Amino acid sequence: MSICKRPVTEFPISPGVAEMDLMAPGTFDFEGAFWWICRVFVRQGHREAGMGSELLRRLLERCGSHCAVVAPGGYGAPMKRQKRFYKRAGFGESGREGLLIYPRNKIIELVAEVDPGEA
Ligand SMILES: CC(C)(COP(=O)(O)OP(=O)(O)OC[C@H]1O[C@@H](n2cnc3c(N)ncnc32)[C@H](O)[C@@H]1OP(=O)(O)O)[C@@H](O)C(=O)NCCC(=O)NCCS
What is the number of other CB atoms lying within 10 angstroms of the CB of residue 80? Predict the structure, then answer.
């Protein structure tokens, strides 16, 4: 598995990859800066064994004091399953059409659980 905060230019060779970008305040009318979950991808043959959830958990651990936002529905995958994947991880409706949010307070709790010194 690998975690990357910057876009990758080549298709990942690892079985799973997760990426996020920091977005400027005001994007989609969100007040503060937030992490945009660009991609959580697990290769066929490695799916449904918890890797995707683990990658997402590790991304969220790195969000610091910012929210995380995602637009489920990419890759031609069923929207209902993708939404379930994110909601199971703690994302909820954002009030913006098509966007789910992992709120800042949850991230702070998560970071505190992982490393109180860095929260
Ligand atoms: C979505 C994805 C990252 C999940 O990875 P995973 O390792 O299989 O996930 P986990 O084993 O941790 O969790 C299983 C859950 O993932 C979701 N999932 C699994 N396979 C999926 C697929 N082909 N399409 C959409 N969601 C899928 C489902 O919510 C599933 O739970 P369910 O069986 O109750 O429906 C993986 O299926 C994938 O890479 N799909 C294609 C890319 C994608 O849709 N990425 C998310 C949008 S950015």
Answer: 9
Q: Which domain holds residue 72?
A: 2-114
Read off the pTM: 0.84
User: How many domains, the chain?
Assistant: 1
| Ligand 1 atom closest to Cα of residue 39 | 48
Domain containing residue 69: CATH number: 3.40.630.30
- pLDDT at res. 107: 72
Is residue 49 very low, low, confident or very high in pLDDT (cuts 50, 70, 90)?
A: very high
Structural domain contains residue 10? yes
Please report where in the chains the tokens 């079985």 appear, as a residue: 15
Which residue, judged by its Cα, is nearest atom 31 of ligand 1? 85
Higher pLDDT, 93 or 109: 93
First-to-last C-alpha distance (Å) of the chain? 24
In a domain, 119, yes or no: no
